[in-house]
Amino acid sequence: MNQLGFPILSTLLVLPVIGALIVLFIPNKQEKLIKSVTFATTLATLLLSLPLYFSFVTGEAGFQFEENIPWIPGLGINYHLGIDGISLFIVLLTTLLSAIAVLSSWTAIKDRVKAYMVLMLLMETAMLGVFVSLDLFLFYAFWEASLIPMAFLIGVWGSDKRIYAAVKFFMYTFVGSALMLVAAIYVYLQGGTSDLPALLDALSLSTNAQIWLFFAFALAFAIKVPLFPLHTWLPAAHVQAPTAGSVILAGVLLKMGTYGYLRFANPLFPQGMAFWGPLLSVLAIIGIIYAALVALVQEDVKSLVAYSSVAHMGYIMLGIFSGGLQGTSGAVMQMVNHGLSTGALFMLVGVLYEQRHTRLMSEYGGIFAKVPVFGAFFLISVLASVGLPGLNGFVGEFVILIGTFKVNAAYAAFATFGIILAAWYLLTAVRRVMFGPFNPANENLKDMNAREIIAALPLVIFFFVLGIFPNLIFDKVNPTTEALVNAIDSAQTTAIVER
Amino acid sequence: MDIQIPYLNFAALLPLLIVVVTGIIVMIADLFIADKRSLGWVSLIGVLLAAAVGAMQQGMPGFDPAFQNMAVTDGYAHFFNLIFLSAAALSILVALGYLGRVGLQKGEYYALLLFSIAGMMMMAAATDLILIFLGLETMSMALYVMAAFNRNQRASGEAGIKYFLMGSFASAFFLYGAALLYGATGSANLSVIGGVLGGGGNPIALLGLGLLLIGFAFKIAAVPFHWWTPDVYTGSPTSVTAFMSVGAKAAGFAALLRLLMVSFPPPTLAGDWQAAIAVLAVLTMTLGNIAALAQKDVKRMLAYSSIAHAGYILLGVAAGSAAGISAALFYLLAYTFMNIGAFAVIGALERQGAVGSNPSATLRTGIKDYAGLASRNVWLALGMAIFLLSLTGFPPLAGFWGKLYLFRAAVQSNLTWLAVIGVLNSGIAAYYYLNVIVQMYMKPVSDEAPAINLNLVTQVALGVAALFTVIVGLWPSPVIEMTLRSLFG
Fold it and tell me: Per the CB < 8 Å rule, is B400 touching A186?
């Protein structure tokens, strides 16, 4: 159904492309105009995405704001868009972080500004496309298309080892998704359509086929998440990427992986999920602990945040594969939370890096008095990331852990240990950067300017709002996740009975 | 005495005749006209005219077979004519820009190109082994000469002689095969052969088929019959490489598909060749891609990559279904534009900054010569990026749908394992294509890199190829519909 009288999702997809085309025709020299048009475009996209939230019918589990027109009738592929409780908030997160990312690269990007801004806009379209596509091949097209702008952002505007990082990122993701394409083709031939809702109704696959197909999809998604031991591209990509690239990468791109499980792999192949779920959960836990331990010894603060990302994404995976309502809803909530808090952390690290051109914690120290506004933002973001009660991170992790505990207490115990480690390494980072003896090298460090505050403020506001009123999210998410969990459950039980 | 003039039905083959006549005109005019570029334009007009007539024919009711049942004008032939004529038009534009710059602007180039196109069109229309062979030789003879066109360069001469020797070898295989098939069935007509073989089980016919397959494998550069390809593609003038890497391959597939599907039709006789084609496909994809990984020269890398692409198309052949044919047709058309585009960029960069036809001037086809291309010429780099990403099979570009369509055909024919090998190969290929993009966009310009002069025709050729690649990528439906209408009969 589409409760708004116009194709809002298509408009969201097209708007950044139009902005990119306009930017393309602005002369290279007019950098200010280029930036302004880009920001205006992302802002317009953000504002236009707000009706999604306000017109969203709470309590409705199915897809809303749907659009469905034939795209390639010869192959039966449709241009089918729609969002439900799972994708709603990720779409909003994407439009928010895109605008913030543009704002945060205002002065950081000095070289080839036009190309950079065009890529940022194309990136936004590709990401939004991933989250609103309801056709297997449309989804795959956006999924792959999102690779190119990000590889360029890392490879052209990154730090010293940017080319290595960009190639690694590209190859990991591309090769990882190769099998997914064959699996998608198989599903499409078996089901007679590539339309996701239709497939969910009609598809009936043998357990054996499901195990294989789930594997093919899960591999692509696991690399994106990234799940231990497929995570090695992420620290490289994050450390080398420009600030805005990291914000987008951690904030949105990683969610494409977890979203993929929720939207495609799990509901399409419930038997496959039952078969592989335990392995994925264990890998998630190993990832949580391992990444936390690695984060503990990082000197580079950006690298530390990157590893914390790996750990945090582990919780989301754990929630998804707990299979229950709480775990699944908590995972959706945590996807949003992680996007907000890690996005904020990467942005704040960028603020320091832009002035001092170093991210080593030993280069800082005792700067709280010098940059109090920055200090406050940094501290709050860290606390949100650690999961302090009252802030958003707490709610997500807590609900996930409850959901996990119900299924497997041991998993929950290990995961809780990870939370303690997270508090340890993140607060250590705060101590080393903010407190302790003042490092005179930071004598000229300037506090955040108005632009940087405007960019960071919405994120911090959401930490509090979602921490105190988590039902703003859960009310809209729960009907969808409940339907999802029930559908998967009944499919799994039927299979057991048949056996 | 009564002399009967056989009913040849020239009207059905009008596009082919237009191309031949234009070729003759160009050859004769070459004697009197000093401005050789104008001959290129005449050829282009001839090609476009042939395409227009072909399009008109497609709207008309069916044509009788021509040349006493040796050639037909069906949708299949029309589609291949579209591929050949597009390849010809693009190649002429590329040649107009390239040949003058490297001092090879000669009239007979265009005449040869037209004759080889005529041969290709003959192969696509032929329903008789004899005519397929005639087409094959017409095409090949012209291409041998074109490969050796830059006679001042040893590499080009080597390309010509190597192509000639290997090509003759392949023709011999083809002829043996055709003779055996004729001996086994008493006819050279494809559908008669199919009818006689009926239930199958004729060892002589099978031997004939095997030899024919080897002949075709040479022509489409399938592993292990590809040895000539890298040297020939690298040594030939780039405008020739662009043309033959697309045209000759498409022509080979045109005749191969018709032979297999008409004389050895699935499902009854598919067992005779499906496994062989599948093995050929695996070897071709994998070896082509792995060899391309190791190349330091972009032209040679693309030569290997074009071997790999023949492997992908073989997936569609192995599928042996309507979907497989239609996928192969789609891929060949998409490949025409993206591959000629990529070679056109190589041609545009080649010998930039060199004076005259000095053969010792640096070739500038090495991977390092692409460093920082994006800041030397934005559009050239963007074009190359589009072509390479499309060759990788990246959405939303034409090559993506081509691959998707081919893999779908394979999975549909229960060849899922083949599709899996296909996608893994795309992964290998992504690495070396990406490497060029990395050079263009992420490496600094070297100091001695010369300024790039792009003449207008080259810009037009690149623009057309890039636009096609992008538009078909965004909206593949019309082309897919067209391929579905272009199956036999």
Answer: no
pTM: 0.93
Q: With an 8 Å Cβ cutoff, are A182 and B423 in contact?
A: yes
Contact B427 A171 (CB under 8 A): yes
Question: What are the backbone dihedrals phi and psi of residue B321, each rounded to the nearest 5 degrees, phi first?
Answer: -135, 170
Tokens of A94: 């994407």
Query: Given this model, what pLDDT does residue A359 score?
Result: 84
Q: Say what the pLDDT of residue A390 is.
A: 84
Using an 8 Å CB-CB cutoff, list chain A residues near B484.
74
Q: Are A334 and A317 in contact (CB under 8 A)?
A: no
Rounded to a whole number of angstroms, the distance from the CA of B129 to the nearest CA of chain A is 33
Which of A72, A138, A146 should be substituted to probe chain B, the one whose Cβ sees the most B Cβ atoms within 10 Å? A72
Extents of the domains making up chain B: 10-485
Does the distance separating the beta carbons of B480 and A74 come in below 8 Å?
yes
CB B69 within 8 A of CB B110: no
What ipTM score was computed for the predicted complex, to two decimals? 0.91
User: Quick one: closest CA in B to A164, which residue?
Assistant: B438
Residues near B282 by beta carbon (within 8 Å), at least 6 away in sequence? B311, B418, B421
- Give A144's contacts in chain B (Cβ within 8 Å): 394-395, 400
CA dist., res. A243 & res. A104, Å (int): 7
Q: Which residues in chain B have Cβ-Cβ distances shorter than 8 Å to A148?
A: 389, 394
Looking at the complex, does the CB of residue B168 fall below 8 Å from at least one CB of chain A?
no
Q: Which residues of A touch B (CB under 8 A)?
A: 71-75, 137, 140-142, 144-145, 147-148, 151-152, 155-156, 162-163, 166-167, 170-171, 174-175, 178-179, 181-182, 185-186, 188-189
Query: Looking at chain B, which residue has its C-alpha nearest residue A145?
Result: B395
Q: What is the pLDDT of residue A497?
A: 66
First to last CA, chain A: 38
Going by C-alpha positions, the residue among A167, A155, A158 that lies closest to residue A105 is: A158
Judged by CB atoms closer than 8 Å, whether chains meet at A155 and B438 is answered as yes
A8-24 and A31-55 are packed helices; what angle lies between their axes, rounded to 10 degrees?
180
Q: Which residues of B148-166 are buried (b: 16+ CB within 10 A; e: fewer)?
A: bbbeebebbbbbbebbbeb
Beta strand A77-83 with A64-72 is antiparallel
The first and second tokens of residue B300, run together, are: 């040679």
Rounded CA separation A246/A235 (Å): 10
Query: How much helix, strand and coil, in percent to the nearest 5, is found in chain A?
Result: 75, 5, 20
The reported pLDDT for the residue numbered B360 is 47
CA distance B373 to chain A (A): 13
| List of chain B residues whose C-beta atoms are within 8 Å of the C-beta of residue A140 | 395
Tell me which chain B residue has its CA closest to the CA of residue A155: B442
Tens digits of per-residue pLDDT, B414-447?
899 999 999 999 999 999 999 999 999 988 887 7
The reply to whether residue B408 touches residue A75, judged by beta carbons under 8 angstroms, is yes
What letter represents residue A115's amino acid? A
Find the CB nearest A186 among B411, B424, B431: B411
State which residue of chain B sits closest to A178, comparing Cα positions: B423
State pLDDT tens for residues B188-242. 998 888 888 877 668 888 899 999 999 999 999 998 888 899 999 999 999 999 9
